Amino acid sequence: MFYLCHSIFIPKTLENETIYILSIESSCDDTSAAVLQNNIVLSNVVASQKIHEEYGGVVPELASRAHQQNIVPVVNQALAKANIDKKQLSAIAFTRGPGLMGSLLVGTSFAKSLALGLGIPLIEVNHMQAHILAHFIKEEKMKPPRFPFLALTISGGHTQIIKVSDYFEMQVLGQTLDDAVGEAFDKSAKILGLPYPGGPLIDTHAQNGNPFAFDFPIPNVKELNFSFSGLKTNILYFIQRNVKDNPNFIHENLADICASIQYTIVTILMKKLQKAVNQTGIKTIAIGGGVSANSGIRKAVLQAKEKHAWKVHIPPFDYCTDNAAMIGIVGYLKYKKGLFAQQNITAKARYTF
């Protein structure tokens, strides 16, 4: 049962109450909807936008238009797969930010309208916080980390080391000062002539290459912060020099180039993560974000687990890239605390913890 007061729903929670959360994610170029029963995912539907491939990157205007086309069928499919009627829903959770403003507006507007129409609470979610809390989805193959832990969030727009003391008590210890790690992968792939999205392709080619074939510099950045802009420039100049001498250089050395780039990026991440462990004394590590699907990063974290006795938590691939299930778990956790949003809430392209 709920009571409405100035557009905020206050729940009368029951100990064994079954909570159904419909969640919506639309921060970039994937439209996603999920239904959770408490902390269990009943459905998690993602509609990707292929149109951006011909442009070599996400075009914001095209992304927002595609979200408008996809959001109704994706939500309907999520409800159908979960075998849940919308009248059974307890609340609507949505990504408020960070992300592309046009994309966020589609999800925010839809969530607000649906919650208002159904007369149920609205829950706003920080996209990057959701990448971290995705580890608390209940699945056989997932064991949630114990507080406190360090989260390495790595995506196309973010690179952060975060101290997580509780579900909603998080402190950014370090972050990128310029480009994100996902952008470094994608831009490097573009330099090599690989199609968008290029990050996964670098990972694929790297499997067959020598990571020590070519030496790229490790940037000297203070404290726990990151910088990838200099590395991208170095890679560009390296390729230009060698292609000038040998037009077939990329084709003849693609696997070794990719392996060397990936090794350098993974080394940058792991050096900072090790430094964070040394400074905080926290040896429980959780990774999240789209780049956490990278095989080199996963391998490095698992090697550190064996070498340094870390407790490591790596999400399944379904919860690495942008998806609504991670939004739903935050919605469930906020629901239990009565952390609901008002109807006048707006999207935020830049949204910090």
Please describe what this structure looks like:
The chain is an alpha/beta fold and 353 residues long. The protein has two domains: 2-135 and 321-337, ATPase, nucleotide binding domain (Nucleotidyltransferase, domain 5), CATH 3.30.420; 144-314, ATPase, nucleotide binding domain (Nucleotidyltransferase, domain 5), CATH 3.30.420.40. Helices cover 41% and strands 20% of the residues. It is built from nine helices and twelve strands. The protein has helices at 60-82, 101-118, 127-133, 181-191, 199-206, 229-245, 249-280, 295-308, 324-337, and strands at residues 2-5, 8-11, 20-25, 30-37, 40-48, 91-97, 122-126, 149-154, 159-166, 169-175, 284-288, 311-313. The strands form three sheets. The chain has a five-stranded mixed sheet, with helices on both faces. Strands 10-9-8-11-12 form a five-stranded mixed sheet. Strands 1-2 form a two-stranded antiparallel sheet. The longest helix has 32 residues, at 249-280. The protein is globular and about 65 Å long.
Mean pLDDT: 92
Number of strands: 12
Q: Could you say which structural class the secondary elements and strand pairing correspond to?
A: alpha/beta
Order of neighbouring strands in the sheet with most strands: 5-4-3-6-7
Short description:
The protein is of the alpha/beta class. It has helices spanning 60-82, 101-118, 127-133, 181-191, 199-206, 229-245, 249-280, 295-308, 324-337, and strands at residues 2-5, 8-11, 20-25, 30-37, 40-48, 91-97, 122-126, 149-154, 159-166, 169-175, 284-288, 311-313. The protein has two domains: 2-135 and 321-337, ATPase, nucleotide binding domain (Nucleotidyltransferase, domain 5), CATH 3.30.420; 144-314, ATPase, nucleotide binding domain (Nucleotidyltransferase, domain 5, 2-Layer Sandwich).
